[in-house]
Amino acid sequence: MTTEHIVTSYEDELASLDSKIAQMGGLTETLIAQSFDALRKGDVAIANNVILDDAKIDEFELEIEDQAVTMIARRQPMALDLRQIMVAIKITSDLERIGDLGKNIAKRVLSIHSEIQPSQLMHGMKSMQDLALSQLKDVLDAYAERNTEKALAVWRGDEEIDAIYNSLFRELLTYMMEDPRNIGLCTHLLFCAKNLERIGDHTTNIAENVHYLVLGTNINEARPKGDNTSRMLINQDD
Amino acid sequence: MVATHIVESEAPMLDKELDANDLDANNLAEAETTNVDPAKKSTKITSEDIDVYYGEKQALFGINLDIPENSVTSLIGPSGCGKSTYLRCINRMNDVIDICRVSGTIKIDGNDIYDPALDVVELRARIGMVFQKPNPFPKSIYDNIAYGPRIHGLTENKDELDELVESSLVKAGLWKEVKDRLAGPGTGLSGGQQQRLCIARAIATKPEVILMDEPCSALDPIATATIEELIDELRRNYTIVIVTHSMQQAARVSQKTAFFHLGKIIEEGETTQIFTNPQNEKTQDYITGRFG
Prior knowledge:
CATH topology of chain A: Methane Monooxygenase Hydroxylase, Chain G, domain 1
Largest sheet of chain A: none
Largest interface: A-B, 18 and 17 residues
CATH class of chain A: Mainly Alpha
Structural class of chain A: mainly alpha
CATH architecture of chain A: Up-down Bundle
Low-confidence stretches of chain B: 17-33
Oligomer: heterodimer
Mean pLDDT of chain B: 88
Strand order of the largest sheet of chain B: 6-7-8-3-9-10
Shape of chain B: globular
Distance between the termini of chain B: 41 Å
Order of helices and strands of chain A: HHHHHH
Order of helices and strands of chain B: HHHEEEHEEHEHHHHEHEHEEHH
Helix content of chain A: over 70%
Number of helices of chain A: 6
Radius of gyration of chain B: 19 Å
Structural class of chain B: alpha/beta
Largest sheet of chain B: 6 strands, mixed
Radius of gyration of chain A: 20 Å
Distance between the termini of chain A: 57 Å
Helix content of chain B: 25-40%
Low-confidence stretches of chain A: none
CATH topology of chain B: Rossmann fold
CATH class of chain B: Alpha Beta
């Protein structure tokens, strides 16, 4: 554990930065969980709540950024403090994007809530959401604990989300080909799945930032890239 | 329109993306020489196992430090950590303190400066020094600069001396401000101008190394920026070692930084690394303000 600053108010500001990120992270987790809940249940009320809640996350982003800029101007941070403030700005922006992606899922619920959602597909979506959410929770813990091992585990774990996304992508295309009436619903679900996949990517960004924060170096491994859908084509004969 | 920075090196940093396309080969070559990794520069000054005692009290413990040529090396650390003592070893200023004993080896260009056969006066002509408080001689601006060259016999005649005075003032960025008042007293200048006068005086003896002991601590931010701009210019031709209490200044002006604590070097390395990712906990605590 590092020793404390001579200037107490500086120490307090750094602590408050951490606590705001923890709060923002908590809000983001809840928002993602609820957006998926809305999707699974086709619940418009929950979806509307999610859309409103996203504004709170945006507010947090502005507040944290503002505090970070003020601290740079007033404290001229060095070393670990400098890294903490820079990383706070970056993590905040990733969390804000994650919030947006959750909100986007909620918006789609408003369009597709009345349609019957194939349970098999929802099963795949559920495991993807569970994984994305637990990754997000773990990376926020890694940040709070300054735990690089945990951050690395999250970073490596993104591959799994990508793998589920690849198979969902295939399934959804197959559904569309089976019956063109599925295309509207499946396209929305495909975007929802893509959103979850992107949430995973932002989560790995946060993991990279935790690593940099603690050690001052970037993760020295090739990033596992698992999203192959950009190269995927499905023929009717498959 | 935004006014330009006094310190030129900050402008290109901010305009990097805009300028990236019009950088021609010359600019690139220059950028490479000015931003070269200090580890790759050749070493001007080497110090091995320097111990310094003031009477019974040991002030420095086994200092080993390489100072790269044509770059700025900053020495940082809390008061009493030995950074100024070390700086004064480089031009043998500690010789004048009776109770002070120095052991170990300091070599400039491979030559031992504590060699008994060496002429200390000649050594100090090669190593200029600028102090915390501007200390111009109570003489005219002209004589302040001409003093060193006269006693070292660096010029043949008045014309040459005039030329040397002018070029020294130009290099110190002071010529335009004082060219019409060279006969006026050096002490009549502002604090920042006096400090630049002292730098001009140090340059006049054509040194290879310039030592600066907190050169900006008595100056306002504008005068400080002017001196920092000057340091940035001078490092192309001189090896500069600067002691500073301002971490921001060390981060701004130097390429290499050494952190002293209780008479020892705790950590030394590339300035950018020291200030973003120091390896030693004590360094980190010091530069982030966690102990005094």
